[in-house]
Structure prediction request, 240 residues.
Amino acid sequence: MIDLYYWPTPNGHKITLFLEETGLEYRIIPVNISAGEQFRPEFLRIAPNNRIPAIVDQAPAGGGAPVPLFESGAILLYLAEKTGQLIPNDLRGRAETLQWLFWQMGGLGPMAGQNHHFVRYAPEQIPYAITRYVNETNRLYGVLNRRLADRPYVAGETYSIADIAAYPWIVPHAAQQQKLEDFPHLARWFAAIADRPATRRAYARGAEINTAPTVNEQSRAILFGQTAGTTATPQPPAAS
Prediction:
């Protein structure tokens, strides 16, 4: 059983996509980031960076104590290795998958996230910031489009955690001021993933949890106004 600490954001969707694809048993524990639940001490003991998603594997390979994990890329890699699914076994296939997983974690996700912030959520429109992040998102779409020109999936012939990591960040393409018709190979890949039954199930689970905007006037300070001095410090687990 996997306990998934989750809210339906791009990074949250990554984990439900994986879990639905593999059939691994899991339960969702909602963490309403709009209400500041990511700063609760019990969550911070699992995810010290106060970000979703996080998991606790209640039945790790080899037995022993449950394994907590935060960071969506690390979770995808852990689950892929646990199940032996959605990551190639051969050296070169694994290397291809990991480099594109890290590309998403270090590039597409952060840059698209800044795009979302300055285009949609910033209290004032800053033209330089908007142009900077819209253009960088566009460049990254171009990188992915070129990559997909001669292969069906990001890491090659088979669907993998590299695809799962990238797809949720392409879903809000219109809000990122990107047009999929400008990227035909990416558009073909995107449509194929959207049509997977596991993708439909994963997004349906998210809709069961929340359909309201994550960012509103009440949540803006919670989501964007934190510093080291305002975030909670997790307490150590009680001795057993």
